[in-house]
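User: Please run a holo structure prediction.
Assistant: Happy to. Please share the sequence and the ligand.
User: Here you go; the ligand is PMV.
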Amino acid sequence: MFTATAPGKVILVGEHAVVYGRPAIAAPVWQTLATATVRPAAPGAGCSIFARDIDLHLRLNEAAAEEPLAVVTRLALAQLGINQEPDWQIDLRSDIPIASGMGSGAALSTALVRAIFGQCGVVVDAATVSALVYESERFYHGAPSGIDNTVVAYGQPIWFVTGQPPEPFAALAPLLLAIADTGIRSPTKETVGYVRRAWQQDPNRYEAIFDEIAAVVKAARRAMEHGDRAALGKQFDANQMLLESLGVSSAPLRKLLAGARAAGALGAKLSGGGRGGNMIALVQEDTVNAVQDALAAAGARRVIVTQLGG
Ligand code: PMV
């Protein structure tokens, strides 16, 4: 038997523009986890996958070709040179909110790949896990930038540009984030599709917004490297304004953002695909409680406080 875990994630700055080749910064959130356990089953039983939190029970030999968890299982087995279906029961658990910008799909697939390799006694590196998970992410998202599978598989804050090796942030000054869930599920595929249609209709306008987001991401990186939280908070706010002009914000998100800022957050923005899902607020030790309360009062379903770096 082998058990493996993978974290949730937040995009700190740069979502959507990252799909168009601009940089983004993302970080793992270890307070929320996906867990996969592979157990040997009776000889001839074949391979079954149970994901109780999403009410899913798959038999590998019957699963549709495009079912993401079956895709990633088949790819992992092929990579291991296993041609015959193993007799396994695989259990998946997750407390990462689904379709909420926290990488739940990538985390489930990452835990699954690690557990499969672990069960076979093979050590697997983050780049291999990330590449396998990317293939399954394509079924959730269409044409994902690759940021979700990368940050979840590396388990470190990263600077990410599609097609380039990710740059982990080794020495990051500690940052305190409050992450609040609107409770509204918003599939990334839909918001990414919306932005793509708008970009196709007016490429000059959207390319200009993506360039402005890239400048924000670079300024955010400088602020993070200097431990300048106030400057980073300003970049969160600037990024949010640009996400508003992309059309991926919403009234429930704006309510949470306003509540966090009024309670003393240094900056706040939606995180991930937008419309629903989660927002993030940059807080300090002396404002974290007030911001948490304000987010709950503004309608947050769940607030997670996480520390990055330090
Ligand atoms: O999975 P989410 O909701 O965190 O969104 C991923 C970020 C996007 O930039 C919107 C899409 C992508 O593929 O990078």
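Residues 11, 15-16, 18-19, 101, 103, 141, 144-145, 147-148, 188, 192, 272-273 surround PMV (CB under 6 Å).
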